[in-house]
Model the fold of this input.
Amino acid sequence: MSFLDDTRHVAEYAATVRRVTRAWNRLPQDKKDLIRGRLQEARDRCQNIVKDKDTRQHVEPVLALAASSIDLSVDDFLKWLKDLVDALEGTPVIDAAGAVWGFMKYQQINVGWLASFLFWLENAVDGDKVSFRTTPATIQIPDETTIGVVGDYGTGTWGDKASPAKQISDWLNQHPQDYFVHLGDIYYSGEPKEDIKNFVRLLPKTNRQVWLTLNGNHDMYSQNNAGAGYFLTLLDKTPQFEQQQNTSYFALENSNWIVVGLDTTYFDSRWNLYMQGNLDDRFQIPFLKEKALAAQSQGKKLLIMTHHNGLEGNGEQKTPLWNQVAEAVSAAPKPVYWYWGHVHAGVVYDDEDGIRPRICGHSAIPWGRTTGKDFIRDYQGGTVKWVENRLADNPSYPGQLNNGFAILTLHGADLIEVFYGQDGTPGWSSAD
Done:
């Protein structure tokens, strides 16, 4: 039995497509021209991956169904979708980046991603955007302290077993850290109710941990008012984040370290769906340069955290954000550590340009080994030192890899990094 045999699923897709069509028809032609090419490329890749099993490609899930939803009638869209269902034959395909192409919760063709595109589109047509705040906190932390890191964590619960986010939360309740940073993204669309249900309710309950959270691209997809869930619900109303002073960038400092969290989403291009990452010249680049100069003059080390990535895939291609950050931290003692999310993977890279890059974006979204391989295609070779490649025990998601998190221990001037699986099993340590 196909999931499209369930009239509830059909009705949900149909209603979403109708709203997408109405919003698209209200979008000015010059704005349509900005994104149509990318949407059509995404549809082509979607068909290549699902129908031809061409796992050399990857598509952002929010784009996978978007082009067909604006170009086809509801009936034709459902026929196109049924063709994808038939092509999968009940077995998801896993692409070059480890994304799982199926219809279950958080898999690439789930209607939730299309709803993300819908909310972004409606907001682009006639919505608003929460104002940016410019009162960043500089929080003094002990010289001996621990910082936990999760990325793309806001999924709530899914699957037959305890979801990765719930497993991580349970582990953190049993092993409290001093500070914890979320690198951004609450799904599907950063709606206020999603922020509470899929994120706040899963925060560890111990009072020892102070939480900080960054702004991700999905946090800017909320209906009517982009960023409403992140800024107005999390920063303004959630006690766990009160130390951020209602602001989406911040610093932690002690005698040996400066840790800087940055908002790479707010000033990114709306017409790129906030997917590339960008820092503004007025507030955050000066803030980062100031902290880099302070690290130089005070003999401290610098660690940066962002939502968006500085490198693509195996590290051989740099993003524009890399160039912004590298220039801004040029005065800081090397190496400069940089943790990012956005990419749903756990990866440790070799140093490059005096920067020590890591990805910790694999905390909760299902991902896996590329179909037909015992590895993830995009993370082979290049400057990759380690990638999480251990299989998770989840019968509902065959081939699923471990989700996970990182713990950073600041011990005087030393830093010990450990990547853990969702069950708390260590996968990589800088001390080994």
